[in-house]
Amino acid sequence: MKAKNFFSAVSIVLAMALTFSCSSDDDGGGNENGGGDGGSVAYEGQTYKTVKIGTQTWFAENLNYDVAGSKCYGEDGEVYNEHGNIELSNAEVQANCDKYGRLYDWPMAMALPSSCNENSCSSQIQPKHKGICPSGWHIPNYDEWNVLMEAVGGEYTAGTKLKATNGWNWNDDEDKSGNGTDDYGFSALPGGYSILDEFNLVGQNGYWWSTSEHSEYGSHVAYRRRMDYDSEDARWIYNFKYFLLSVRCLKD
User: Fold this and answer.
1) Which terminus of the chain is more solvent-facing, meaning fewer CB atoms within 10 Å of its CB: N or C?
2) In terms of C-beta density within 10 A (0-12 exposed, 13-18 middle, 19 or more buried), how is residue 42 classed?
3) Residue ranges covered by each domain of the chain
4) Can you tell me the distance from the alpha carbon of 120 to that of 125, in angstroms, rounded to the nearest whole number?
5) Residue 19's pLDDT band (cuts 50, 70, 90)
6) What is the mean pLDDT of the chain?
7) What pLDDT is recorded for position 215?
8) Residue partners of 25: CB distance under 8 A and separation at least 6
9) Is residue 89 helix, strand or coil?
10) What is the reported pLDDT for 37?
11) Residue 137 pLDDT
């Protein structure tokens, strides 16, 4: 009887260990490039894929949270392309939202007053500033974006390694493709930008906010990461805060 009980206990322990090792969470697993196999997080009615890269865990999709003032590409405005300015149908706008997420100006992304478009609000930015991200997540700052770049081999080749394997084309011309290898599962997509109710460069360029203002050039600009369809890098650039750009969330 004692032997039977012993082996039953061992079986239970082994089963529990196997279950734990096969379970997934937001940190994901790993692959040969250091990228996590991925988890997920639910937020405001949508489930987002997540991925661990080096020491960080990121959303593997652009944020698609409908905060007041944010827009899907082509919503309530005109799209500029090689044919001039055109208006998109509701179905086309929704397709852009589903694929690329929504676009936000800097104060929207930071969940701060619109006056921050013209005034310095760095004193209101927390070390892990939640902004419009879900609880336990935050908008990355300048240094945290740099940590990601270093984890994938540096910003000069990060664009290629972080871009999705499809969707980066010049005006949907597959012969002019700038798709990436998506080595780490970050799956960056080119959501373009919006300014003054005009939209540009969806499918070609992607821009993501940081929490960091660019004090050298005035209180009305902040840092963003940029990836282009025709470039291998993922470089820093600063932007007027009232531009509407994409957002990625980083785990606290």
Assistant:
1) N
2) exposed
3) 53-251
4) 10
5) very low
6) 86
7) 78
8) 39
9) coil
10) 56
11) 98
**Which residues touch 130 (CB under 8 Å, ≥6 apart)?**
111, 137, 138, 139
Helix 155-162 × helix 142-151 angle, to 10° = 80
Q: Amino acid letter at 63?
A: L
Distance CA 102, CA 131 (A): 15
* CA neighbours closer than 13 Å in the CB half-sphere of residue 119: 8
State the Cα–Cα distance between residues 38 and 49, nearest whole angstrom. 7
**CA angle at residue 163 from 98 to 208, to 5 degrees?**
65
Count of residues making up the chain: 252
Contacts of 98 by beta carbon, 8 Å cutoff, 6+ apart: 64
Task: Catalogue the E-assigned strands of the chain.
Answer: 39-43, 46-53, 56-59, 78-81, 84-86, 137-138, 169-170, 173-177, 193-195, 198-200, 205-213, 221-228, 235-240, 250-251
pLDDT at 75: 96
Q: Which of 76-90, 139-153, 193-207 has the lowest mean pLDDT?
A: 76-90
Cα distance between residue 28 and residue 34, in whole Å: 11
**Token pair for residue 28?**
């994901």
How far is residue 117's CA from residue 115's CA, in Å, rounded to a whole number?
Answer: 5
CA Rg, the chain, in Å?
A: 21
